[in-house]
Protein 1
Amino acid sequence: MAKVRTAFFCKNCGAESAKWLGKCPACGEWNTYVEEVIEKSSATGVPKMAGDQPRQKPQIKNLTEVTVLTSFRIRTGDGELDRVLGGGIVPGSLILVGGQPGIGKSTLLLQFALKQKRKILYVSGEESEEQIKLRADRVGIQNDQCFVYTETNVATILHEAARLQPEVMIIDSIQTITTPYIDSTSGSISQVRECAGELQRFAKESNIPVIIIGHITKEGGIAGPKLLEHIVDVVLQFEGDQHYAYRIIRTLKNRFGSTDEIGIYAMDMQGLREVSNPSELLISPNADNLSGSTIAASLEGLRPLLIETQALVSPSVYGTAQRSATGFDLRRLSMLLAVLEKRCGLPFGQHDVFLNIAGGIRVSDPAIDLAVVSALISSIENIPVARNICFAGEVGLSGEIRPASRVEQRIAEAARLGFTTIYIPEFKSEMVKLNQSKTEIKTLSKIDDLLREIFA
Ligand code: TYD
Ligand code: MG
């Protein structure tokens, strides 16, 4: 009888250890080790994949003899997805799409499968064929080249996939499939790691690209193993708020392209719709004469995006003032408030502050600071900011307006959307002379300039 063998795995990085450890020596995290049963098949040396022919051994080659196949890419038929993938799917690649439950990962990939004229295999360990069919009906695309398979055993899946020879295989999700050679439950670290390894081998050997869906934990990491990120070639993250219609797909890693790209979708009754003009949707049209609302000329990845920032500042009733931010870093908000208090003498200490980035978008671009600061001042002073003005610039600790990246692109987007004025950092003052658009460019060097220009 085979002995039950267990091992300890780090939940953060997937490192394995024979005994429990308080601190992971690989990633330095504390208290992340969990015990898992890994009873492997007693017959060692048997090929892992059941019913498989022995694998071809790779040969040592001179690099100059290696032919490159990556110039060919499978177009996904979805502009946003192609953009984040760097132009399409590279044959033989392994792509991970991560995201929180209910965000629309299955919808995105089923839609992709249905839009293709190619043979696609959609493997689901989560939903029944009927459920998938219902979703396909909802999306409203008919396609006779899309195959579905509800199976969770990775060996069976790969065996069937090798028979069907699809052009792309989709696995929904990595946490539901299992390999029989490991005894722990599906979704555990050793299972995920082993299955991902099998899928990677399959992709490389058959040249069939595999897209895996992975769930994300509450903390935002791809559930369980970070090591999944090392195995795959491309990591895409699908994010957004379930309660808002907008979804952003971001490239976190791409062995075949840039990681600066994002794609934007809107979820509606017929599934996900590509949004090619996001700025127009993110700005509410009739917020004239309302204080606390300003527009930032921001960049998401490489794309200029005009977004609305809203602030509400009101005297705090209780002893300690409340701070809350949606779509913006709370610590950064505290820093901006401290700068305003210290440099401009505005009494934010006695006020509750709520900040919201419209549309459920999360912004990481530091150049949104200027718009946030303007919204805060606008709200505390109760002076509305005109809707045809937008801002781009980072605010430093001494109240200076620091340079923003790709100012030209921000100005071009503001001009395209008919903004009359854009405020940018002094540093880029040569832009004023070069300006050929109808949008007027004004420069600021300090927050005081902002107060004088707009709130005087
Ligand atoms: P789903 O793709 O199942 O999310 P995930 O695979 O990431 O868990 O879809 C999530 C949500 O999308 C679901 O709550 C319903 C909604 N939805 C729509 O609003 N419109 C649609 O056309 C579809 C198919 C789904
Ligand atoms: Mg799903």
Protein 2
Amino acid sequence: MIKLSDGRNLPLDMHKVKVVQRLPFPLIEQRLAAIREGGFNTFMLRTRDMFLDMLTDSGTNAQSDAQLAASMESDDAYAGSESFFKMVDAVQDVFGYNYVLPAHQGRAAEHLIAKGLVKPGDVIPMNQHFTTTKAHLVLAGATVEEICTDEGYNPDSGCLFKGNMDIDKLNQVIARHGADKIPFIRMESTANLLGGQPFSMANLKEVRAIADKHKIPLLVDTSLITDNAYMIKHREAGYEKCSVAEIIKEIGSIADIIYMSGRKSTTSRAGLITMREKKIYDQLAPLVPVYEGFLTYGGISTREIESMAVGLREMTEENCAGCAVELIEYFVSRLIDKGIPVVKPAGGVGAHIDALRFLPHLDHQQYPAGALAAAIFICSGVRGMERGTVSMDRDVDGTELISELELVRLAVPRRAFTMSHIEYVVDRVAWLYKHREMIGGLAWENEPKMLRFFIGRLKPIAAGQASANWDEELAQAFIHDFSRNM
Ligand code: F0G
């Protein structure tokens, strides 16, 4: 952030555009047809039918010229590739661990961890689950105990570290189940489903102390570590003078096992698991050739491994670590200016709109976040993602598991979008907010059993004053106000 002479903060881009991708601008008629065709599920849209893709920052961040240059030098050897050893060097420098296993993305790392370290009947305490994490642990026969502090579920609270674990609840979970049922405690950096909210270093240290007392390993999901470290630097007393690199190294020194999707913080399509102890490495390593590929590529193209090696170092640089967080802060502040309910304070990944407060006439089972994501798409051509009850799967007995939060995430991939894009989205969401009573709910047309949000199909239903035709009526109101239908 840079201070302007009128006192405002400006998220200043510390990179320039070198390669561009042209964007289509489909008119509202095309957007409406596309969302219907996609079963009101933004995952099922094609990019030709959208303007801005704010679904995720996963694999959609812009790579640097240094990453692309490195990928051209990759060593394609099946075994013993030098590209892999460059990644190992980077992991050692960044996290301080010697043992490194490749996995093609984050959920592949979760699969290996679940297969190698988790038994049926185990319990995994964590600050917050991520969809794929929970799916793999449940498939391995374990249950997940989500124990972030109560602040984490309050979108309006100003708490700076909503990703913190509740220490009392952690003690209770250990007392209830016994340490031998807990293969590890999991902390997620920049807790994604809480709205990209960080944990504090102080909290991580407290969790570590309890893990030590009960001899339970501490595992950190560092998929979004760079944002978490940047927020520690700017929010936690005592860290203002530390570099992002030092903060990430300190997190490494506190954990025992780290895994990450490389698709976010490192902007390459890869993943890894790294650990302090050879014993854990030996437990997991034999699984890599079975499920991923040989130990020195793990299902990742060697070009991406080279890119990850460079990306791991770049993510520790102040300007790189801060650029998404700062643009998101600007985005969120502009939404707040327009009175739109959002998760506060701004965190990582993107802006998170609170669909429960945006659409108070809808209850959880009418899927407010899914309906709002569809409505935003119709009115702007911007694709966001539902992060609420649709993103939860039903319990084994078929009961709906209600999400504490109903959020629409508008992701801000790193170095991909500009201020004009952000201003456009804010304007269209503000228009929609004025017409919010026109938005109805959604009901399942086809509901898969596992990770249903990815490929399930829904249809519009009436709610409050909105009719079951709310998609059409909303489009008509938009066309009335915006003469060019854009
Ligand atoms: N852990 C966290 C915290 C994540 O955010 C993700 C992915 C994963 C694990 C799984 O990694 O996608 O490489 O298999 N998050 C993406 C998202 C999908 O859109 O937030 P993956």
